[in-house]
Structure formats: structure tokens, C-alpha cells
Protein: Manganese transporter
Organism: Jannaschia pagri
Amino acid sequence: MKDTLGFQEGIAAEGLSVTYAGGVTALRDASFMLPTGTIAGLVGVNGAGKSTLFKALMGFLPVRAERIALLGYSIDEALRRNLVAYVPQAEEVDWTFPVLVRDVVMMGRYGHMGFFRRPGAADRTAVADALARVDMTAFADRQIGQLSGGQKKRVFLARALAQEARVILLDEPFTGVDVKTEDAIITLLKQMRAEGRVMLVSTHNLGAVPQFCDRAIFIKGTVLDYGLTEEVFTPANLKRAFGGVLRRYDLGGEDLHEDEDDKRRVTVLTDDERPFVIYGDDHD
Ligand SMILES: Nc1ncnc2c1ncn2[C@@H]1O[C@H](COP(=O)(O)OP(=O)(O)OP(=O)(O)O)[C@@H](O)[C@H]1O
């Protein structure tokens, strides 16, 4: 699918390695490709390299790669064209910084403004539209630090929308968010997918991955597997990525069904957030 600006390849990495200044190699020879019009779940244990991948794609870290491209552009060029946005984990933001919600969203417009960063009518319209899309118009003049976790996430999504980003990286957007807000965020992400954007979403909420991600990437110091969710989101890959971290419960027969003739089994895999539930046999 081509996105509304005509892009086809969304995020591509071939042989990507990232080594921190202290010598830790957090990613080694990682390769994957995501087309535009995609929501991809990035799953792996703590320390697997999810944040490192985001930072690499945002140009925050030096990388070695045979190829790394966003919408066919180098990272520098994609950033210069304002095509990439990052929705950070809550812990990465200084919430005591006195800034209004509308100003946070306006930051998404900076790349579209001239040297003096003086917002014009188009910038103000983009901010108002973005706030309306995430249902945060009523909070525009609040200090960002005075919002709930879910509201803060929506403001950062609005910043990405105001920026008109085509590649959006979301670092654990559901942490500390109630189910209603999670649903609202998922609905918005699906609309953004329909507009041809590509979203890479790190999450420990494994149960939600088949619900809203059409693709998945398994990461553990490298990319173990990637592809269409229905093909790669398998118990075997979950086991490879999570090893002993995942708890597994197999339920069946009388444990599960009052009707003893009902032989269907259920497998539940969980890393302690929302579990992934599989019906039927043969889940190894
Ligand atoms: N600034 C740094 N300097 C050195 N090593 C680092 C740095 N940041 C991360 N690492 C190491 O790189 C590896 C990958 O870390 P990363 O933060 O990317 O994992 P993650 O998958 O995002 O984990 P989590 O699920 O806990 O957020 C870990 O071994 C981590 O200790």
C-alpha cells in the first residue's frame, strides 16, 4: 500500500548494530522491513534493545548498518523533512518543566516554521486539529505536568499529528493507561494506519498485539523474527524472545469447562501485563 504521500517502504534496517560508548552492544546485525500503512508491535524482554532501536531510528545514537532507511530516506534526511516523531516513555520526560499542553503540541510544528519559530495561522490550526483528534481540546491551557498518564500520552500523539509525521515510534504507550484510554489510542493508531503512516509500538502488553498490530518484531539483542502478526506471533517465537520470563498456563477439561466433553484447551502466555490467550492444541 502506498501512503497518502506515495511512500511504500516505511522502516527498513539491514545489518543494524548499535554499541554504546561504554562498549555494550545492545543490537547486533538486526534486520527488518515494515511497509507504510502498518502498526507493528515491538516485543521483547527488558533490556532486549527496544529503546535502543528507537533511539537509533531517531538518530540519537551512532549506528553501523548495511542500510537503514525511513521512507527510503537516510535518517538525517527523514528528520530534516520532519517525517519522524517519537512518543516517549513517561519516565523520559521532565514533567515539572512549566509548559502548556498547546505549547507541547506546537513543538511538533517547529520544523515547519522559519528560523524565529513564530507560529502562523496554519501552525495554530494544525495544533487545534491535533488536540481535537486526541480529544484533548479542553486541556489546551493546562500545564502538561498536571495531566494523567493517559492524557500525557495523547498530548504527545497530538504533537506527532501536528508535526504531520509519517513514521511514529511509540515507546510503551499503554503503561499506566486505563483500558478506555488504551482503546482510544488504538482507535487513533488505526486511523493513522489507514492514512498510510507507519507506527512501531513497543509494548509489554502481549495480549493487545494481535488485536491492533498487523505486524510484529521480536527482539532480543537482535531481531529474532518479524512479519505479519498472524504468521510470526506464535508461541515458539514468544518462547524464543521471552525464554523463562513468560509464564505459561495450560487449561482444559474440567479446569476450564463445566461440560466434561468439551475438550478444547486454552494456553495463556503472560509477562504480567495483559496476557496472550490461545485456543486449541499444539502450542509449542
Ligand atoms: N546509555 C547506555 N549505555 C550503556 N548501555 C546501555 C545504555 N542504554 C541501554 N544500555 C544497554 O543496552 C541494552 C538494551 O537496552 P534497552 O534500553 O534498549 O532495552 P529495552 O528493550 O528498551 O528494555 P525495557 O523493556 O526495559 O525498556 C541493555 O543491556 C542495556 O543495559
In short: The chain has a mean pLDDT of 87. The longest helix spans residues 179-194.
